[in-house]
Hints:
By secondary structure, the chain is α/β, with parallel strands linked by helices. It is built from 16 helices and ten strands.
Amino acid sequence: MQGRKKLIWGYVIADYVAAAMAWLTLYFFRKMYIEQVAFNSEIASTDTTLLLGFFAIPAVWLLLYYVTGCYTDIYRKSRLIEMLKTFFISMAGVTVIFFALLLDDDIQRYSDYYLTLAIIFSAQLCYTVMGRLLVLFYAKAQLQRGTVGFNTLIIGSDQKANEIYEELSGGGLVLGYRFCGYLELGSNQKNLLTDSIRKLGSLEDLEAAVEQYKIEEVIVAVESTEHHRLNYIINTLAGKEIYIKIIPDLFDILSGTVKFNHIISTAFIEIPPVLLSEWQRISKRWFDVALSLVALLFLGLPMLVVAAIIKLSSKGPVFYEQERLGQYGIPFRIIKFRSMYTDAEKMGPQLASAEDKRITPIGRFMRKYRVDELPQFINILRGDMSLIGPRAERRYYVDQILPQAPYYKHVWKVKPGLTSLGMVKYGYASTVDEMVKRLKYDILYIENMSILLDMKIIIYTVMTVLYGRGK
């Protein structure tokens, strides 16, 4: 995995060189054709426009490529899709550069503007495409040689599983599957894969096999009579960094749920481990950081006042830290203002209720207006949380939720949030049953998440705070 990430730097270097060369091409074109001046090394060493092209302009391009999600796993990229993406990003970037830096330049003819735009666009696109193709072809060569691959698990061992294995492992396809083994779905299966790859157990061993063999992709090859097992498989793998690929039947193909991105690849129903595109994920993160910094700046003094009141009103620390489960089920320490007495859980974990005597007088006010949640802006800056996302729960309660709602693991696909659709629509939960009821709103958010939806939830959260609807 670490070796694969290194190739991204090859992409970055290629893009930097391409941007510098494109600007250099434009520079010489303008000097020799438009300005028609003699060019020598003395001019080059003192010309700030030339230096701008070697440092500032490429940096802007790299930022644009990063924001639009170009620097993701190189080995999963489609060359055709990547070139189309490069075309449109180049068009947008060149347009901005033209109007920001080139439109007010001295020209002799109006047509020079069109030539300038054509030169910078052609150079930027051609150099970038050439550099990226070199990196992508190198990546494909590594996949073909088998030096790089994705640890893959097949679920199923009957006819469908055997056919997909033969298709993906034969014929010299450059797909990068590194088959670690298969899991059988039941004792009545034919186990046709036994002679080809290892049997790693049954479906009940799915989670253990994923951990032991560091599985990155799971191919689900269930027969039509085994479709009822799909929910168990998807729920078990939810919240893990694993691509799930399900072999479709005719109904799936007709319903339009099948992904077919590569001509030489098999058509799958694909369930990626991330729900947002790269540019959306990056935008969401920047939005989180910017708003958290602004909030801490404006709320810093009120938070100091709250901290002083907490310290003076009851014994114990100002802040309360507790282990919660975050994205991919990874534990982190959540930070809150202490709203209960220090011995609140001497009898074990307990959920707060409306008239809970463990809550301090100032704590009751803080919980009503969500003031106790404000230190979580620090968790957001750390990267543990997001502004909007499902509520992070303790392992103690997760273990009680999962038997009732196995689909709870879907909330681990995203970072937990300071606030959520569930908190806005339902509020705090005082029992595990209420947690399960609130869960449907978190799942609804996850399946429809967007920056616009985040903005709406923030507005409703502010209204909840102002009207004191917390508890």
